[in-house]
Amino acid sequence: MNDFALSRRDFLTASALIGGLVIAFFIPAARRFAHAQPAPAKLPAPNAFLRIGADDQITVMIAHSEMGQGIWTALPMLIAEELDADWGRIRVEHAPAAPAYAHTVFGLQMTGGSTSTWSEFDRYRQAGALARALLVSAAAQRFGVSATDCRTQNGVVICGEKRARYGELAEAAAKLEAPRSVALREPKDWKVIGKPTRRLDTPEKTTGRAQFGIDVQFDGLLTAVVARSPVFGGKVKSYDATKARAVPGVRDVVQVPSGIAVVADHFWAAKLGRDALAVEWDPGLGVDFDSTTQWDEFRRLAGTRGAVAARAGDAAAALKRATKVLEAEYTVPYLAHATMEPLNCAVRIGTDKCETWTGTQFQGIDQQVAAGITGLKPGQIEIHTPFLGGGFGRRATPTSDFVNEAVHVAKAAGKPVKTVWTREDDTRGGYYRPAYLHRLRVGVGADGLPMAWAHTLVGQSILVGTPFEPMMVKDGVDATSVEGVSDSPYMKEIRNHRVDLHSPRTVVPVLWWRSVGHSHTAFVMESMIDELAASAARDPVEYRRALLKQHPRHLGVLNLAAKKSGWDAKLPAGRARGIAVHESFGSWLAQVAEVSIEGGRIRVHRVVCAIDCGVAINPAGVVAQVEGGVAFGLGAALHSRMDVREGRPQQSNFHDYRVLRLDEMPAVEVHIVPSTERPGGVGEPGVPPIAPAVANAVFALTGQRLRDLPLAPAS
Amino acid sequence: MKLDINGATSEVEAPADMPLLWVLRDLLHLTGTKYGCGIAQCGACTVHVDGRPLRSCVTPVGAVGGRKITTIEGLSADGSHPVQRAWAELDVVQCGYCQSGQIMSAAALLAAEPNPSDAAIDAALTGNLCRCGTYQRIRAAVHRAAELGSTGSSS
After folding, report:
1. Given Cys at both, which of A442, B94, B106, B152 links A68, Cβ 3.0 to 4.6 Å?
2. Which of B13, B43, B75 is the last residue of a domain?
3. CATH class assigned to A2-205
4. pLDDT per residue as tens digits for the range A274-301
5. How many alpha carbons fall within 13 Å on the CB side of residue A124?
6. Domain A213-284+343-420 CATH class label
7. Residue A451 has what DSSP assignment?
8. Residue of A35, A214, A630 lying closest to B35 (CB–CB)
9. Interface test with A, best of B5, B20, B27, B37 (most A CBs within 10 A)
10. B36 touches chain A (CB under 8 A)
């Protein structure tokens, strides 16, 4: 058994919560939004992360937001593993915002970076183990036996013929002193971890009962739609709300820092009111911005030295000695997240507290932002987190932009208001995956393998100017700009390399987009390796094997994907395969894509994936995330782009900002490498390899090397 | 205006050109039907009108007076519609936001075509976007729902 000493801080937290848990975590029914299940009666509970009711119901409070990634199921599994809980009695709630729920690594309550499961791997197991220990102690006292003579099974403590349900013991257990340490089970004894487990949120999500932020309704809640500058960085010069106020149902028109909000009885009236507004904008300097001509500036920068992100040996000198030098330039466009649920946030401001209801990935920052606007203390900001209708990073803005605006709207209106973005607002709202240009010069030796690599990236930093800058930007290098290049396994094997980074600033707000820097670096690295293999007239898999000899986890997934895809088997005429392998967020992925080109369009028929994510806590969830990652990445690889002209985003809705549709979904197979390593992330790593796997397949099929996303084969 | 929704008559006061979606969501508090695009491009707002799938975001409420409207809340009393059961069996959902629309489109397809081919499923559901990428499971779940029994007419 692994003995986990509970630190003094954890211990105090645990015992304080045992005493005060009901107060800390009980949310009175009146404060919940309409349609929510009635709050359970006062329940004693062993610690902050679960409560056990007299009715045997086990409520798990999850410190991270469920946005599709399955944390609603994976975290309860960790508790259930140690608690020997009856899985059928578990229900789940999002935790409120409170210091106890801060991310174990980042120190802020948040969801992102594919970290939720691994960062909670110990904490949630400890919570389960602590609860079990207390329940066993309570049972031992009741039975008049030693705790060591008791065992637990499926929500019951058993000692010989004596049995007591957890619910019967909960109240007594809550009064006991927490043990100073708890033992966690050895992996060989796991019964829940590693077992494919269906999602716990399916019943509400298949019946329309699931509550998303946009569904929040309560008496007196109005709805606002905001007119924002059509040009990034623009400001309101003047406005006339006469016609807007005349729209039936419109209650108020208020100015907020981001624009003019029309507040109405319901969305439709607010939207008609917004349409009727006459606003004159001062567009500011943003009108000079054009995402097409930006490439010229990026190319100019790429010809100059930037901040050094990685360096070994002398790449310039080695390039001169190379047998052959390959040069290439790759580009990727701005991308919107396009979550299915458009942004929204409901806010109610009282004299001593402010409540927000929104699908958020950043409760910790939302709290600070709302406190700043209302003049309340962060502890007085009550954050309610309904389900998120997708996140992909958009609901984790370092400025909490959509919460900030909604708090301003409610404050200016003097009433509870839900601010809802239209799809057009959401698509044109910025916070895009930054556009990037990569320029590479790779020197190849007589053996056909790379011996010098010079790589320059040009694109906006996500983190400069945010609270994360001190932590994640070093010597002018934003780690999220170069992840996947500077730490690439190939780079490690090339004695002479240099990675330069330019981070120009523009008016376009940028943000992490599912898989962040890896969303472009994997495309570039895995395409370039394919170019090198082709140049050396070697098989792409065999070539990668030669380069990845010292990287067993890369090799493991590469070989597994190659084998499962039948890499060496012949395909029918008109079809070809491409492969890519990439590590991100602590997991290794390889994908083999099988493509054809029909009527000038790339068609992806099958994608075989191999993932090594360490211990797969819920293999069913891992498979779903990789399938979804392929679809998300494939939509971007084939279709998505945001263009900006004169500072104005050009695409607006799903007719012109295209994403993957069902008829384009390939058959995706996911194979998990058995592992006892610590868990890695799975929400994002499925995304990066698909674009290069498809581009490499198109090359194999047609000989065309596509170096720009979205991929556009010449017909 | 009187509306026949999920087998009951609802009385609403709304301008005739107000989209059915917002009448359902904001006036009748039936929030299971979702707003995704407002221009019939994503399918999240799909409901049944006289048994046929319709994008409620572009359907004026004035056009559906006296017609039978079924929303996700009325598809079954307890989540037991074959499509809902198949969705659970195959663990389809992720974020879940698009799934009301997916399920309504699938149920309408099965009502019209109890044993649809892959091509028929693609044609019927390609208008329903899912950003989580649950498409492969949706396809499989439609086939499974067909097996679970004819859907009968849900609306």
Report:
1. B94
2. B75
3. alpha beta
4. 999 999 999 999 999 999 999 999 999 9
5. 27
6. alpha beta
7. E
8. A214
9. B37
10. yes
